[in-house]
Amino acid sequence: MMKQWRRPTPCRTIAGAILAGSLALAAGTALAQERDITAEQFEKFRMMMEEANTAELFEARGEDLWKARRGPKNASLEQCDLGLGPGVLKGAYVQSPRYYPDVGKVMDIERRIAHCMVTLQGFKPEDLSKQPFSNAKSTPELVSLTTYVAGHSRGMKIAVPQSHPEERETYKLGEAVFYHRAGPWDLSCASCHGEDGKRIRTQNLPNFTRPGNADRGFIGWPGYRMTGGLMHTLQWRMNDCFRQQRFPEPGYLSDTVTALLAYMGVNANGSTYRGPGIKR
Asked: Under CATH, to which class is 47-279 assigned?
């Protein structure tokens, strides 16, 4: 005789749901552990590579460029004021972006170096923006100069200032840009870097909004990219993020990028800067 089908009792249904939930939680925990192991292994690999960091070569080239008399005015950059006085490099990178009274605006460090190349050496802004980023053929002078300046802040605490009203306003603008969703994929910076536990391929995506994690997007730049064999600055990193979001790419040394760097830098305050670094 065929057995009559019986509806599961509520207790059995609840027990099944609890069991399914427990299995899902265990699977999720195992996956999280797997991700942590992957990140840990990559971090070990990165630290091993930094023992012979190629960024040092770009620092050396940047030092030569900094001290050389060049441009239409046949001058060096040794009197360039990066916010701490003419020629003072120590600590300048970790205290940038900042407000500069002589131009009445906030500048990030690469933008300020470009300003000095124009005002002290006589270079034209349009010439500096012809090739803003490194490629297989050459590395722009600004990349090496920024790497050289950044090296003078290695091991120092990040302290991006917020004392001037323009600095606070720039931070707010950067925050707005960070959360702004747009483009064909309706993405924002926060889509990748606004929550914990996200990852692309084998690389964890740091949450730039959370204290203790926000410095991950700041401390290792400028960075030597192993996959391309190129040295890049944060100007490039921000531009590439816009490209990946399918946004129109910002102009080189734009206010938008400066604002984003101010937002990221302030959120990273208190962390130890360890760049110029090495990137996957």
From this structure: mainly alpha
